[in-house]
């Protein structure tokens, strides 16, 4: 089967909102064995939406997925444009009134009623994170799927309701596994796995680089070939696989900390709290996260972590000696078994030939053991900070796997 993706909204077209929806839908459709053949972005313009719909109707693709334009305001015109094109009349779908009342805790603005107008032929999709439902309409051998624009709401709606629908619709008997891997770049993994790819021509191996990590998808219609390739892939990638369920590196780290009954504290300089934020964004992190310090200045490092003035004078704030003293300070402050410290030069200024922009020193302490490393990351200030956090979490993940494995 083939699909089109249509992202609707002036804010997306003009770059005020990053278009995460297109990347997510393209990836998820591919995993289902549904081929995305066209992706378009248009503003809140009925005429432009109509042109896309007319082209889709003439195409041999079977599925059109739209995102955006289902909200309560005057510029949310997706339903009017699409249902008008399809010749379908809308009516108030009162069966979803209770969802709005529950969301607002009783009464709600009349403008939100606009979100409940759909044709009687439409299968409504519940929005568990917002107020606007989505819908599925089948007409003329084609399937139209209408999703909300905000990414988190769209993602939840797709995974819970659209994914099962599309699995039944496609009827494809295909075996698919997905992995998140870290530790090498895409080209390095390509060389490393080249022999595996060549020895299993019946299996499709796809890799998708995502900042600091690689998503691998293995798919095949041959059960035996898929099973054999999967076994070999897991063995080759045992040191690099973070997750087989699409879990983030921070989620995987929190899971390992829970499994080991360990708590973690962090002391950050150049990352400015980003590392702590990534960890506490994981549901259930309160069971393992002890304390976090943003010690950006030299004075803060000395005041809160006990870093020595002489060490700063001799080695500078961005050094192995300093991050080791930072984790030692954390150990004195609390009883967390795992301690992380980061100090670096995020730029764009501040670098020298000896210590260029992108240089980061970090240290990880696990009970009585300490590990430290220096890395140099490329990119702008935000990229350097995020790459630092991802790499530090990857190294912690590796150390925890090794440590917990040795105890079993």
Overall description:
This protein is of the alpha/beta class and 408 residues long. 41% of the residues lie in helices and 24% in strands. It contains 15 helices and 17 strands. The protein has helices at residues 10-13, 20-31, 46-58, 78-86, 97-104, 151-170, 186-192, 194-199, 223-236, 249-260, 274-280, 298-305, 309-315, 320-333, 381-406, and strands spanning 2-8, 35-42, 63-67, 91-92, 117-118, 123-125, 134-139, 142-147, 175-181, 204-210, 213-220, 241-243, 264-268, 289-294, 338-344, 359-366, 369-376. It has a 6-stranded mixed beta sheet, sandwiched between helices. It is globular. It starts with a strand and ends with a helix. The model has no long low-confidence stretch (mean pLDDT 93).
**Tally of DSSP helical segments:** 15
Strand content: 15-25%
Could you estimate the helical fraction of the residues in percent?
40-55%
In terms of quaternary structure, what is this? single chain
**Rg computed from alpha carbons, rounded to a whole number of angstroms:** 25 Å
Q: Main β-sheet, in a few words?
A: 6 strands, mixed
First-to-last CA distance: 46 Å
Mean pLDDT: 93
Number of strands: 17
Shape: globular
Low-confidence stretches: none
List the helices and strands and how they pair.
Layout: E1 2-8, H1 10-13, H2 20-31, E2 35-42, H3 46-58, E3 63-67, H4 78-86, E4 91-92, H5 97-104, E5 117-118, E6 123-125, E7 134-139, E8 142-147, H6 151-170, E9 175-181, H7 186-192, H8 194-199, E10 204-210, E11 213-220, H9 223-236, E12 241-243, H10 249-260, E13 264-268, H11 274-280, E14 289-294, H12 298-305, H13 309-315, H14 320-333, E15 338-344, E16 359-366, E17 369-376, H15 381-406
Helix pairs in contact: 2-6, 3-4, 10-15
